[in-house]
Amino acid sequence: MTYNEIRKVFLDYFKQHGHKIVPSASLIPEDPNLLFTIAGVVLWKPELRGERPAPAPRVANVQKCIRAGGKHNDLEDVGFDNRHHTFFEMLGNWSFGDYFKEEAITMSWEVLTKVLGLDPNRLVITTHHSDDEATEIWKKLTGKDAIRLGDKDNWWAIGDTGPCGPCTEIHYDMQPDMIGGLPGSPEEDCGRFVELWNNVFMTYDRDANGNLTPLPKRNIDTGAGLERWAAVLQNKLDNYDTDLFVNLKRAVSDLTGVKETETNKPSFKIITDHLRSVGFAIADGVIPSNADRGYVIRRILRRAMRHGQILGHKGGLLSELYPALVTEMGDTYPELKNNQQHVVEIIRNEENSFTDMLQNGMKLLESELPNVNNGILPGDVAFKLFDTYGFPLDLTQMILRDKNIKVDVNAFEKCMNEQKERSRADTRGTKLLWESQTDLPATIDIEKYETKTDKPATVLSILRGEEFVKSANENDEVEIVLDHTPFYGTQGGQVGDMGVFKIDDNVVMNVTETNRVGGLVVHKGVLTSPINVGDEVMPEINQQNRQQIARAHTATHLLQAALRKVLNEDVEQRGSKVSPDSVRFDFSFGRAMTTEEKQAVEDLVNEWIKSDLNVTHEEMDIDSAKKRGAMALFGEKYGDRVRVITAGDVSCELCGGTHIYHTGEIIKARINKEKSISSGIRRITMSVGALAE
Ligand code: GLY
Question: Residue 198 C-alpha to ligand 1 middle, in angstroms?
Answer without folding.
Answer: 6
